[in-house]
From TrEMBL:
PANTHER family, per database record: KINESIN-LIKE PROTEIN KIFC3, KINESIN-LIKE PROTEIN KLP-3
Protein name per the record: Kinesin-like protein
Coiled coil location: 5-188, 231-287
Molecular function terms from GO: ATP binding; microtubule binding; microtubule motor activity
Length: 770
């Protein structure tokens, strides 16, 4: 039903659009007709103007001629013309009206009637014109009559003139007779006298009569002149009136022709307009009929649709009513559903909570397990590792045989190092050996696993061991352009901490201390000369702490650099010769990493102790005295104590002698338990340092080769040398021929020198993997 309704709507819209289009077309036609009528109006206007001109011409002529009957008649005609023009205007107005009314299909009779009426009027006018023409003829006749009469008058005038001439003649003859008589009389004196007297009397009478007749004659002559003049004037008048009449006749003819032409034009235009109008009306009518038909058809379609829709509507109404009922019931239903949904959601949340709790429990267990496994792994690998690093030959080594390189490496095994000692090659095996060309970066790569374990809460110690000038400080601190482990470790810690920032909150702090002559000093404190004490935590945890040791919180590399600089400045101001001083003291950088797991609240604390040890060279042997001797004793003591502690730890002795030196005591909790230790043994490759190099390597090998088993522990216990003993054992290593050096394979069984380094490596790996 809906679709059919929509369809019908569409149909309706379409029809409306069509209707609009048709209306537009009609409007266009109307405007067309309007423009045409405007054109016609323009023409009419011009005609009007012409007519006006002509009327003016007529009036001018009339004023020239004075009003005659003809002119009056002309005036009448002009007025009639004017009237007709007005009528025409009215007709045009009507035409316009009719055109405007054309939107409604036109009923043509009114137009036709109007047309007929106009035509009637036109014929009437024509009749009138005809009448006027006849009147004009009459007038012509009149003029003719008048002319005839004038001729008669002329004739009579001639007659009277002739009579007058005769009279004159007669009178003049009498005058002559009289004069003759007078003359004859004169000739007869008495008689004549009498006669004269009579004549005189008579002549007086004659004279009077003559005078009279002369004056009469004069009068008559004057009259004749006058009459002639009048005649002349009348002739002139006649001529001019004839001319005017001819002119007028021509004008009338012209006007008539004009009128006829205009009328014809008008008729033609009207006819054309009529035709056009009829055509437009017909077209519109036919279109309207077609449209009507279409509309009718549509209507029929709509009607049938409606008929089919009605039942659908009924079902819809029914549906609507039922829906209405449902809607009325909806709030109740909704409430019920919401209640149940809420209960379900609550249940689900509860489930999720319990699952979460379970997961958290499992996670914690896994964490513990992981740590345990890690510890086990560390235990198996040995948590004390020994690396060797050989520095390059420097300018300070001088030239000649003393500066010759005595250290060589094994191409196949990066854990083996050979030292040329007294013409013989002594081999040592450590966990890893860095040749002189090894970069700071490469060294740090081997160390970074230890550093990161700090973040997991492990304590780590990295020691740089070796004689002065072997590169301890270079390895730990490095140069500004090529920093050592200290700065790289802190940088790594920062980046690691950033990586874990999503789950953990970490705080990194740094302390720097120095141990000189068994005295601990704070390198970052305000009073560096103050000796610090190491104390047990009063909380009974067995933890150690150094009251007053400054701890700087660091967040960036810039912070570290500031701290290092501060430490250096402090160290330098406290001694006269920094180089010498630093070679006699242990420098410690203690980095503490504290973390909190945001989800579990688990807390970890890891300590990274980076120790640049005092020079291991044997000063005591050269018979030093005073402060130099004391220094040497302290250094020997502390380095021996470090060896003892490491030994005790590796051999898992019950007692570890941490307290034997400040250094081991301070690092107690970083050396025990599951802590990790790295000993970086620095050696010089120069020939002149061979004996010190040998000592350092022996120390390294001994530290590394402490066996874990109880038997070897015992054996180790018996053979662990003190720092002094290291000196003593340094003798010609040729006790047993074929053995190149003090063994690197455990003290119980010195390894034969002919063992290939490859085999040694395999054995080492087996050893470390348990
Ligand atoms: P130590 O601290 O053991 O007394 P230094 O670290 O002061 O020794 O090193 C002594 C000299 O040797 C320094 O000039 C140092 O730059 C240089 N040196 C040490 N190790 C290296 C190395 N691996 N590469 C280049 N130069 C080194
Ligand atoms: Mg140094």
């Amino acid at each position: 039903v809906m679709t059919s309704m929509a369809h019908l709507q569409e149909e309706k819209l379409r029809l409306q659009e069509e209707l609009l289009g048709l209306q537009e077309k009609l409007a266009a036609q109307e405007s067309d007709e309007l423009s045409r009528s405007l054109q016609l109006q323009g023409q009419v206007e011009t005609l009007k103007a012409k007519l006006l001109e002509q009327a003016q011409e007529i009036s001018r002529l009339r004023s020239e001629l004075g009003g005659t009957d003809v002119e009056k008649h002309r005036d009448l005609l002009v007025a009639e013309n004017e009237h007709l023009r007005q009528e025409m205007k009215a007709c045009e107005g009507e035409l316009r009206e009719l055109r405007q009314q054309q939107q409604v299909p036109c009923q043509d009779c009114a137009h036709l009637q109007e047309n007929a009426r106009l035509q009637e009027r036109l014929s009437q006018l024509q009749q009138e014109a005809e009448e006027m023409r006849s009147k004009l003829v009459e007038l012509d006749l009149e003029v003719q009559q008048k002319t005839n009469r004038l001729a008669e008058v002329e004739l009579r005038l001639k007659d009277s003139l002739a009579e007058r001439a005769e009279e004159e003649e007669r009178l003049s003859r009498r005058l002559r007779d009289s004069q003759e008589t007078i003359a004859s009389l004169k000739s007869q004196p008495l008689q004549i006298k009498y006669i004269i007297k009579t004549v005189e009397v008579e002549s007086a009478k004659a004279k009077q009569a003559l005078c009279e007749s002369q004056s009469r004659n004069q009068y008559l002559q004057e009259q004749v002149g006058m009459q002639r003049q009048v005649l002349k004037e009348m002739e002139q008048q006649l001529q001019s009136s004839q001319k005017t009449a001819a002119q007028l006749r021509a004008q009338i003819m012209m006007y008539e022709a004009e009128l006829e032409r205009t009328h014809g034009q008008m008729l033609e235009e009207m006819q054309a307009m009529e035709e056009e109008k009829n055509r437009a009306i017909e077209e519109a009518f036919s279109r309207a009929q077609v449209e009507m038909k279409a509309v009718h058809e549509n209507l029929a379609g709509v009607r049938t649709n409606l008929l089919t829709l009605q039942p659908a509507l009924r079902t819809l109404t029914h549906d609507y009513n039922s829906l209405k009922r449902q809607v009325r019931n909806f709030p109740l239903l909704l409430q019920e559903t919401l209640r149940s949904a809420r209960a379900e959601i609550g249940q689900a949340i509860e489930d999720v909570h319990s699952t979460n709790r379970e997961l958290l429990r499992k996670y914690r267990r896994e964490l513990q397990l992981r740590k345990k496994c890690h510890n086990e792994l560390v235990r198996l690998k040995g948590n004390i590792r020994v690396f060797g690093r050989v520095r390059p030959v420097t300018k300070e080594d001088g030239e000649g045989p003393e500066a010759a390189n005595v250290v060589t490496f094994d191409a196949d095994d990066d854990a083996v190092l050979h030292l040329l000692h007294k013409g013989k090659q002594v081999s040592f095996e450590l966990d890893k050996v860095f040749p002189p060309q090894a970069s700071q970066e490469e060294v740090f790569q081997e160390v970074q696993a230890l550093v990161t374990s700090c973040i997991d809460g492990y304590n780590v110690c990295i020691f740089a061991y070796g004689q002065t000038g072997a590169g301890k400080t270079y390895t730990m601190e490095g140069t500004a352009a090529n920093p050592g482990i200290n700065q790289r470790a802190l940088q790594l810690l920062f980046s690691e901490v950033r990586g874990k920032a999503a789950d953990w909150d970490y705080a990194i702090s740094v302390s720097a201390a120095e141990i000189y002559n068994e005295a601990l000093r704070d390198l970052l404190g305000k009073e560096p000369q103050e000796k610090l004490e190491i104390k047990l935590c009063p909380d009974g945890s067995g933890q150690l702490y150094v009251p007053g040791l400054t701890e700087f919180s660091v967040q960036s590399v810039e912070d570290i650099n500031k701290v290092f600089e501060f430490g250096h400045v402090n160290r330098a101001t406290e001694c006269t010769n920094l180089n010498e001083h630093s070679s006699r003291s242990h420098a410690l950088l203690i980095i503490t990493v504290r973390g909190v797991d945001r989800s579990t609240g688990l807390r970890t604390t890891g300590k990274l102790n980076l120790v640049d040890l005092a020079g291991s060279e044997r000063v005591g042997r050269s018979g030093a005295e005073g402060s130099r001797l004391r220094e040497a004793q302290h250094i020997n003591k502390s380095l021996s104590a470090l060896g003892d502690v490491i030994y005790a730890l590796r051999s898992r002795q019950g007692h570890v002698p941490f307290r034997n030196s400040k250094l081991t005591y301070l690092l107690q909790d970083s050396l025990s338990g599951d802590s990790k230790t790295l000993m970086m043994v620095q050696v010089s490759p120069a020939e002149k340092n061979t004996s010190e190099t040998l000592c350092s390597l022996k120390f390294a090998e001994r530290v590394r080769s402490v066996e874990l088993g109880p038997v070897s522990r015992k054996a180790e216990l018996a053979s662990w040398p003190s720092q002094e003993q290291l000196e003593v054992t340094e003798g010609p290593p040729g006790d047993s021929p074929g053995t190149a050096a003090p063994s690197g394979r455990g003290h119980a069984s010195p390894s034969p020198g002919h063992l290939s380094s490859r085999a040694a490596s395999i054995r080492r790996k087996l050893q470390t993997s348990g």
